[in-house]
Amino acid sequence: xxxxxxxxxxxxxxxxxxxxxxxxxxxxxxxxxxxxxxxxxxxxxxxxxxxxxxxxxxxxxxxxxxxxxxxxxxxxxxxxxxxxxxxxxxxxxxxxxxxxxxxxxxxxxxxxxxxxxxxxxxxxxxxxxxxxxxxxxxxxxxxxxxxxxxxxxxxxxxxxxxxxxxxxxxxxxxxxxxxxxxxxxxxxxxxxxxxxxxxxxxxxxxxxxxxxxxxxxxxxxxxxxxxxxxxxxxxxxxxxxxxxxxxxxxxxxxxxxxxxxxxxxxxxxxxxxxxxxxxxxxxxxxxxxxxxxxxxxxxxxxxxxxxxxxxxxxxxxxxxxxxxxxxxxxxxxxxxxxxxxxxxxxxxxxxxxxxxxxxxxxxxxxxxxxxxxxxxxxxxxxxxxxxxxxxxxxxxxxxxxxxxxxxxxxxxxxxxxxxxxxxxxxxxxxxxxxxxxxxxxxxxxxxxxxxxxxxxxxxxxxxxxxxxxxxxxxxxxxxxxxxxxxxxxxxxxxxxxxxxxxxxxxxxxxxxxxxxxxxxxxxxxxxxxxxxxxxxxxxxxxxxxxxxxxxxxxxxxxxxxxxxxxxxxxxxxxxxxxxxxxxxxxxxxxxxxxxxxxxxxxxxxxxxxxxxxxxxxxxxxxxxxxxxxxxxxxxxxxxxxxxxxxxxxxxxxxxxxxxxxxxxxxxxxxxxxxxxxxxxxxxxxxxxxxxxxxxxxxxxxxxxxxxxxxxxxxxxxxxxxxxxxxxxxxxxxxxxxxxxxxxxxxxxxxxxxxxxxxxxxxxxxxxxxxxxxxxxxxxxxxxxxxxxxxxxxxxxxxxxxxxxxxxxxxxxxxxxxxxxxxxxxxxxxxxxxxxxxxxxxxxxxxxxxxxxxxxxxxxxxxxxxxxxxxxxxxxxxxxxxxxxxxxxxxxxxxxxx
Length: 897
What we know:
Elements: H1 2-18, H2 24-71, H3 76-80, H4 85-100, E1 104-108, H5 132-135, E2 140-146, E3 149-159, E4 165-174, H6 182-215, H7 220-236, E5 240-244, E6 250-253, H8 255-261, H9 280-288, E7 292-299, E8 302-310, E9 320-326, H10 327-353, H11 360-371, E10 378-384, E11 400-407, E12 420-421, H12 428-435, E13 439-441, H13 448-451, H14 455-464, E14 468-476, E15 479-488, H15 496-533, E16 544-551, E17 559-566, E18 572-579, H16 584-602, H17 607-625, E19 637-645, E20 650-656, E21 662-664, E22 670-672, E23 677-678, E24 691-694, E25 700-704, H18 706-709, H19 716-727, H20 735-746, E26 755-762, E27 770-775, H21 781-796, H22 802-819, E28 824-830, E29 833-840, H23 860-867, E30 870-876, E31 879-887, H24 891-896
Parallel strand pairs: 20-23
Antiparallel strand pairs: 1-4, 2-3, 3-4, 5-6, 5-9, 7-8, 8-9, 10-11, 10-15, 11-12, 13-14, 14-15, 16-26, 17-18, 18-19, 19-20, 20-24, 21-22, 21-25, 25-26, 27-28, 28-29, 29-31, 30-31
């Protein structure tokens, strides 16, 4: 009996495993399993919940009974009133706890302080739980997390003879210690569920086995879908299918077989021999039942490749299956598919290979390269000459320039690259340019309009073997840019189908050429604007021998700038800066910042103060011009500003986020100066620091922007090392030669950023050309100073300027004595001009004004402004300096000395 049950269980299990969840039997089994499992789970949950409820009720009942029994036990009141209640009650509570089967009995006073506890260390500590209700005379139960864990406890009052509550008794036990019924009932429920599951599985397995035999294990929807797909595929394939029975009857013929064999509509069910339209050899093959592989039979004017196989499978009705293919049409379709494939590959390669740069000539050359030799033997591209400059082309095919020529050979007689051509109106190029439509010339020898363009050259073209032409206009966004000419010499002439391919090929290139044209125009405008905002020539000065290089980026102008600004006292300011970004916005911002540097320099501010004002200006530009449309045009800029004094050979500089300058010593060694790094302009809130150093005469100060040393192929440190190597070891090299050497060493092939390079060799003003005096603050000292200055001018050979200089000096010293403060210092500098400086310790500055006829004073500065070429005031840490410059009459003779 057990063996039968085991075999039944094994068969049922195998049937269940083999059952598909998409079959009807599988779905019934799945529903039954889900129901049985759900019932078992619900029973277990109900049992657990009921057990927990009964356990909680039982725990409360036992806790109340034990607590009340102990609270009313004889002698409890006397023990509480004894000197040591814990000593009396601890043994009693422990004995009662063990007898009653609870986990604890605690006796406490009315304040909740324990007298007893199963853990002696807890005696004397406060009871865990509420005692308020029990102090009011009530029995109170609760669940708490006490010293023993999760507990159910009951607290009852202990009354004296007069009914007053003098103590409390609490008894309780842990809930898990209450006997539960779950452990006894759970196996019964699980066993019942398992039995129900086994019975349902066995019944379903028997039903499923019978259904699988009848449906081949397919679900109803699968069977329906199978037959629908069978009919769709059978009648949609481009291959004829026939099923012929053993006795020669045609059981099935799909639509393609009917077309290839030209079968009548009632052919199915008839014997193959009765179909008179079939070729006898084909009929013989169909009724023979033999195997055949790609046998070629002639039927209905077609060559058919026939395959025949017998149906020998188990359960098959017998007969043969025949497939038919039209080899004639397949060969034609295969050849056409190959042509289409080649054309699609050409267009795909054109999409990848044309327009890789924003250069008009390069894009035109890419069009010529991609079409040779896959589409044409020679390709020439002619663009309107204005297109090369980014301008709008003319509407006629005159002044077009041949910008690209590509062919299978280089000795062709076609017009060479770079030639400016005027096509006659009768040529295919001129007609296509005027109409905007492509021109197909299958035979150039008969194209009279093309032959008259250049008879000698066209004859040589024909003799060379070029015989066919497609002239396709290059047109984008409604603008006709030029013509692309496709020539053939080694293959069949162009036809109408290839004309559409040429138009598609040119259309893909036209957009790229127009983009390059527009970019050329915008780049030229930006470069023009940028160059107009930069110095055209360097100002004349004697402090520095300066040379510079400025190269705009190939991919778009940026905002780099440089400046050389003469300052009073023969000093010169150098500045180099860089505006973040590219395009017109960066160039315009550069112009604004350069103008601001000029304006701040006219105030003769020290470098750190000038950068602070420039930083504030950039912050205001960002704040005033910020809007959603220009959110990406927030200004960010760097700047380095230096002032060199040839009298003291001192150079003071500060930088705002810019790269440190390099210094080439007279011995040829190179060092990068330690100038404190300030934040880039526009951040605000942070001060700038200056660095002051003394430069030896003949030193070269090298200022540059990051476009010179940073590149995609090298990092910043590598670029600075290359700059050091390019500058080092050539102490006698001029700034012009140094600029060229640096560019030869560091200039990228196609700069992605602007490059500004400024190299200044320092000069020192000879000591014999500078005279200075300390002047006491006494009006009587003025006459002595006039005499000393007159003698100095006599030594310098400038006695003719003595009268004017004495007037200027007298007025400046008198103002310093009258309105200034000590110390008063006078300095004369003999440079390109004669410079007089009067310094004092006051910060008050005089102002030029018109004096009335009745005024006794106020004409001194007016007199100075008439005698001097320039005059002004600059402030120092010790006070101010008022200066005036007088022109030297014979400057050429002075320079010759």
